[in-house]
Automatic annotation (TrEMBL), chain A:
Name assigned to this protein: Branched-chain amino acid transport system permease protein
Signal peptide: none
Entry-linked InterPro entries: ABC_transp_permease (IPR001851), LivM-like (IPR043428)
Keywords, sorted A to Z: Cell membrane, Membrane, Transmembrane, Transmembrane helix
Species per Swiss-Prot/TrEMBL record: Labrys monachus
From TrEMBL, chain B:
Pfam family, one: BPD_transp_2
Coiled coil stretches, renumbered: none
Membrane topology according to the record: Multi-pass membrane protein
Keywords per UniProt: Amino-acid transport, Cell inner membrane, Cell membrane, Membrane, Transmembrane, Transmembrane helix, Transport
Protein name (record): Branched-subunit amino acid ABC-type transport system permease component
Keyword NADP: no
Length: 333, 290
């Protein structure tokens, strides 16, 4: 056994952490900075995954696709498809606030899941899409995993720096202003609905990118692979644990939660089959409980949002107790 | 399509489904009225209630109908425990945090059901209930029971809220919690009472859903969207609105197969929710706007 195969599992873990890191930054743009409660993360993740799968997989009977396009084209297509999907959703839904947006976004994710399940001509229904190419697929498995890790980390870094830059620019300051006091921002002439839509679309496109990365890692996508509540919920708990409104924080959240989630899977896999099945649900229970514990002990997250650094000016080290609940300033629907 | 097949295949199933949604929506609306947050664990609390009925009827040999009151109390106590453990300390934070917390609670409740009962589909009664023919109307016995019991529950709840001391306290707190507290109403007791009612209503809606379809771990999550649609369509905080909203959503869902593929039937509640929010966000009965 050589060094690289020994590292297989940690590498696999790190790839997933970078994919979820991309998702948490995406949700952070929507929730942490714009105060938009998107409970349909899995929906846009699925749109990205399926788009890239359709664009890059070889021809198959009974469904469209089989374009065998290069992987980068698939990833760009995934982001584009999410932009196209997010635009009408945002146009209609972003006028709702807090609870209403949450329930509506759950509905959007549910609708996407139903389309994925029932439109056989597009997604091959429950049989799913197979033979999705991997980037660096010509290399031996272990090397290709390492290369994939490099690629996913590079993408995450680019996403992180672009989003950070965007949030430190006047655009980011304005987003926080809108989030914290919509009326004041409006009075100062900010186009609130338009800015919200921008944040929603940016976040959704990044979710699609994460979906594309996922699908090129696993090579197969079926509707069951994307359990809407598990993907959505894990991303939410990562953002809340890490500290919404802080990109470094949500990345720490992604790291911690994914390590806990996978490590607990390693443990439960050792159990006898009949108990292992129950243990899978026990893991879900513990994740739900973990959220309650975080909300109780540290609702602002491990690395809370820093107030006063947005424009790059002095860091006063102040933390906002309201950081986890950006959208409360405006109660209208 | 003639009138009798319309009634048999769309109206009657729609009313049954609508009554189940109505029971859930009353609970959602009560939480909104008193606690002022969305309760996304509502569907999974209904699942929990449905499985409690299964537990009590299997362990004691009682009929599911007789086990329902016990299960309702169990679900009510569960709701109080959840509130006490997870929601109480979030009350000073913005309400959306409690909503997020309730999503986690939903996951936990579902996991409990899946750990103890697994994910297989179960049912309360074995064998197929044959519909009886009442002058051309095909109605199954448990459908009659469902509607009669839902009407009974709603009337009892209405009398309780209008005429009892605690019902009046609940309405006062819904209108203005600070004023109610100044008048000597113990907010904590009203909150506990509300959760008891909400849990019991959840158990009833879960039981009737299980009686008319199947008992499975995802049953409650699947009715969450139509339940919220019913509550919001009727007007948040309005009990009569929740009932009307439930019936509208139920009947529309059954009739939606006339225009869309049956796979997408479950989305009709979502479409109604969107339309309600866009056209009339206060709902049909001018409820609260969050």
């Amino acid at each position: 056994m050589n060094f690289v195969t020994l590292l297989n599992y940690p590498i696999y873990l790190l790839i997933f952490i970078s994919i979820y890191g991309c998702l948490t930054i995406a949700l952070n743009v929507q929730w942490g900075y714009a105060g938009l409660f998107n409970a349909g993360v899995a929906g846009f993740f699925a749109v990205g995954a399926y788009t890239s799968a359709i664009l890059t997989s070889p021809a198959a009977v009974g469904r469209i696709g089989g374009f065998s396009l290069p992987v980068p084209v698939g990833m760009l297509g995934a982001m584009l498809a999410c932009v196209v999907a997010a635009w009408p959703v945002g146009k209609v839904c972003l006028r709702f606030r807090s609870d209403y947006l949450a329930i509506v976004s759950i509905g959007v994710a549910e609708a996407i899941r139903l389309v994925v399940r029932s439109e056989e001509w597009l997604t091959n229904g429950s049989r799913g899409i197979i033979d999705i190419p991997r980037p660096f697929g010509d290399l031996p498995y272990a090397q290709s995993q390492v290369a994939f890790l490099g690629l996913s980390c590079l993408i995450l870094l680019v996403v992180y720096f672009l989003v950070e830059r965007q949030l430190r620019s006047p655009w980011g300051r304005m987003m926080r202003a809108i989030r914290d006091n919509e009326t004041a921002a409006q009075a100062m002439g900010k186009d609130v609905p338009r800015r919200r839509l921008e944040a929603f679309i940016l976040g959704s496109a990044l979710m699609g990118l994460a979906g594309a990365l996922y699908v090129h890692l696993t090579r197969v996508i079926t509707p069951d692979a994307i359990d809407p509540m598990i993907v959505t919920f894990l991303v939410w708990i990562m953002v809340i644990l890490g500290g919404s409104g802080n990109n470094r924080g949500v990345l720490v959240g992604a790291l911690i939660i994914w390590v806990i989630w996978s490590a607990s899977e390693l443990v439960t896999d050792q159990l006898p089959a009949d108990i292992a099945l129950k243990a899978k649900y026990a893991r879900m229970f513990l994740v739900g409980l973990l959220l309650q514990v975080i909300l109780r002990l540290r609702p602002e997250g491990l690395l809370p949002e820093r107030v006063g650094t947005a424009g790059g000016s002095g860091d006063l080290g102040r933390t906002s107790p309201e950081a986890i609940a950006p959208s409360e300033g405006s109660d209208d629907v | 399509m003639d009138i009798s097949s319309f009634i048999n295949f769309f109206l009657i199933p729609g009313i049954i489904l609508g009554s189940i949604y109505a029971l859930g929506a009353i609970g959602v609306t009560l939480v909104y009225a008193i606690m002022r947050h969305g309760h996304f664990a509502h569907g999974d609390l209904a699942t929990f209630g449905a499985f409690m009925v299964l537990l009590f009827s299997a362990s004691s040999g009682l009929s599911p109908y007789a086990a329902l009151p016990i299960a309702a109390v169990a679900a009510g106590l569960m709701a109080i425990a959840i509130d006490w453990l997870f929601y109480t300390h979030l009350r000073t934070l913005p309400k959306i945090i409690t909503t997020i917390s309730s999503l986690g609670v939903a996951l936990m409740l579902r996991a409990v059901v899946q750990i103890f009962w697994g994910v297989n589909t179960l049912s309360y009664e074995t064998g197929i209930a044959r519909p009886e023919n009442w002058f051309g109307l095909r109605i199954k016995p448990h459908e009659v029971v469902t509607v009669v019991m839902v009407i009974g529950l709603v009337v009892a709840l209405e009398i309780f809220l209008r005429h009892s001391k605690w019902g009046k306290a609940m309405r006062a707190m819904s209108d203005n919690p600070d004023l109610a507290s100044l008048c000597g109403i113990d907010n904590r007791k009203v909150i506990a009472l509300t959760w008891m009612l909400v849990g019991a209503l959840c158990a009833a809606s879960g039981f009737f859903l299980g009686l008319n379809t199947q008992v499975k771990s995802l049953m409650g999550w699947n009715i969450l969207l139509p339940t919220f649609a019913a509550a919001i369509l009727g007007g948040v905080g309005r009990i009569e609105g929740a009932i009307l909203g439930g019936l509208i959503v139920g009947i529309c869902e059954e009739m939606s197969v006339l225009v869309i593929r049956s796979e997408y039937k479950v989305l009709s509640g979502f479409v109604i929710l969107l339309l309600a929010l866009l056209i009339r966000p206060t709902g049909l009965f001018r409820g609260k706007v969050l």
